[in-house]
Every structure is written in C-alpha cells, then in structure tokens.
Amino acid sequence: MSALLPEGRNEAVRGGSIPVKLEPVDVADVVSGSPAQGFVELGKIGEAEVGIWELRGGVATDTEVDELFVVLSGGATIEFLEVPGEPEASGEVVEVTAGDVMRLVAGTRTRWTVQDHIRKVYISEA
Fold this sequence. Notes:
The chain has one domain (about 25-125): Jelly Rolls, CATH 2.60.120. It contains no helices and 7 strands. By secondary structure, the protein is mostly beta strands.
C-alpha cells in the first residue's frame, strides 16, 4: 500500500475514520484480554515515518521506538516497565486520552492497558 499522504502533494485525510486492519498482538506480548493492533502508513517527513496506529481490547507489552504521538481517540494507561538510562522511571504510569501528545524513547519497555481502544498519529524514526 502506498502512503496516504505522499511527498510533494497537499493532501488531507480523516485520521479518525481511516480503516486500520487489526491483527492479534503477538502472544508473547499479551498480558490479558485479546488485544489487536494495526497501523496505516501516512507518509514521511524527512527521514521520519508518520502513520496511524490503533490498539483494541486488552493489555499488551511493547518495546518502543523513538516516537512522538498525538492521541486521536480513545485512551490508554501506559506503564513504564523499563526505561533505558533511567531506572528510577520504572513503574511510572501515564494516562493518555484524545488530544494528548506524548514522546516515547527508543528501548523503553511499556505495558499498554486499553479498555476499548486507542488510536494515535505517530511520528517515528524510520
């Protein structure tokens, strides 16, 4: 699939309604429930990838890439299990909901608890 917002064109998309194909989260990352996730590539800005990511229905762990995101809809509780270079940050919890902007540092190990869904626009290293 090609990018929805290709370089060199002035375009707009409805981020809240773009279809995102969801697949079960890898069983090794499932903590509880039946979480499913997916993403759609929007395009690139310089070397950064931009897309929409969605997670539904459960609790899952992840190892993050360097990323900035904006929550479009839904929300999540994000627990920091392990933060590179900041052991004191382990165990911290952040609640994010629609309109929130957050930065995640590469290598951070997280636990995402999602009651219904979270849908975000992300900008990350390619």
